[in-house]
Specification:
Length: 417
């Protein structure tokens, strides 16, 4: 009985707190936003909002003119996005459009958090469809604008910048066929090949994630293996060590940029990057013509020498699969004798924002086993229990009157209080 009363009191308190998100006075809205954000510091706190209009009201406040309110709103939504129930609500309440508008606003002071939240939202296929604008007259417009920001703000340096994280959004968008088609046909794919050796890890992993996802469509293989793209040297260079090939037979067919490299040439050190590259090569090897091209360009030699120094067992297993396919007997022409879905997740991978932002190399997880993660914002917050990342500092509670309000079906305010 006491437990039931406590639950009822908690529910009433949350309803009152959420109601103040729509108050006409900014200082009261700010206090309410801080209270909600603080409550989302734990999974238990997040669940208390399930019977409220919290997500709807918070989505309406994205891009608020008061940067303090906007930051608290985004912090709360980022933490709440770990729950699929709330994530679907965000998508339904047009959070993608609101976030894109905020990201494109040059005066916006919360772009960093907008990008992080959009990355979380894009991990859901429905969210990815919203970003790609599937079926819309302007399909692909959001992707194009995000890509322009990604390229225009590239300083070619190791240090992270706000728009480095756009790479994860584009990568997640290519988990759906429409996203992959747009990226390939609009030249984004070719441009991202330049990032396979980028000094910034976030940009590099995001770009490679896009490349790998697009290779899930075998129909793209002739194009990417052709002279316009010539993908193999771009994928193999990070795996190329300082070995010197003196046998002329070894150099026949090998791309010129791979034949002679500096004596201090270093192999890519990040485990996740190497995994993505090997998986990309494995996907290419699934088609007969691509395998023939890989043989001609001496892919086996590069992978053989890479395998000699590689320590990661998962990466070595991928190398072995590719080598077996290149050295094995092929089926008759036009018959694909290997299905990467037998050994890999059949759904293109999506990026784990937590792995990107914390810069901790992690083995790629299968999409079907993933859940959206709370995002760690560097130098702004500290982690708390159950791995949910708080994104707003606790504030003293302020007393306020009970507030209720109606909203229409689209989630917009019916009246201003």
């Amino acid at each position: 009985f006491c437990a039931a009363n406590k639950m009822a009191d908690d529910k009433k308190m949350m309803e009152e707190l959420v109601g103040f998100l729509r108050h006409k006075k900014p200082e009261i809205r700010l206090a309410a936003v801080d209270g909600v954000a603080t409550s989302t510091n734990t999974l238990e706190g997040i669940r208390k909002f399930k019977d409220t209009h919290a997500v709807r009201f918070l989505c309406q406040l994205v891009g608020d003119s008061d940067s303090r309110i906007a930051r608290g709103v985004l912090s709360a939504l980022i933490n709440m996005s770990i729950d699929p129930f709330f994530l679907q609500q965000m998508i339904n309440f047009h959070v993608v459009t609101r976030l894109i508008d905020s990201i494109l606003d040059p005066e916006n002071k919360t772009v960093e958090l907008c990008v992080i939240l959009l990355s979380n939202v894009s991990r859901d296929p429905k969210g990815a469809r919203k970003i790609v604008q599937v079926g819309d007259a302007l399909q692909g417009y959001y992707l194009r604008r995000l890509f322009e920001l990604f390229v225009d703000n590239d300083k070619n340096q190791t240090k992270d910048d706000t728009f480095s994280w756009v790479a994860s959004i584009i990568s997640n968008a290519t988990q759906i066929p429409e996203g992959r088609e747009y990226v390939v046909k609009q030249g984004i794919f070719i441009k991202l090949l330049e990032y396979t050796q980028h000094p910034n890890l976030i940009r590099k992993k995001g770009a490679l994630g896009v490349i790998r996802n697009c290779l899930f469509d075998a129909s793209n293989h002739p194009f990417v293996m052709g002279p316009e793209v010539d993908i193999l040297p771009k994928l193999l260079m990070p795996l190329r060590g300082p070995q010197v090939y003196t046998d002329e037979d070894d150099l026949i067919g090998m791309p010129p940029e791979l034949q002679h490299v500096p004596q201090d040439k270093k192999i890519e050190s990040n485990a996740e990057v190497k995994t993505i590259i090997v998986e990309s090569l494995l996907l290419l090897a699934a088609t007969r013509k691509a395998r023939d091209e890989m043989r001609k360009k001496q892919v086996y030699l590069i992978l053989r020498d890479f395998d000699l120094v590689e320590q990661d067992n998962a990466v070595k297993e991928g190398i072995l699969q590719i080598v077996n396919m290149l050295k094995g007997l092929d089926e008759p022409e036009e018959v694909v004798d290997f299905n990467p879905m037998d050994t890999m997740d059949p759904t293109p991978h999506v990026i784990n924002p937590e792995a990107i932002l914390t810069k901790k190399p992690q083995k790629a997880q299968e999409t079907e086993n993933r859940e959206p993660q709370a995002v760690e914002v560097p130098e702004k917050v500290e982690k708390v229990e159950e791995k949910v990342t708080p994104t707003a500092k606790p504030v003293a509670k302020k007393s306020a009157k009970k507030f209720t309000a109606d909203v229409d079906e689209e989630g917009d305010f019916v009246e201003e209080i």
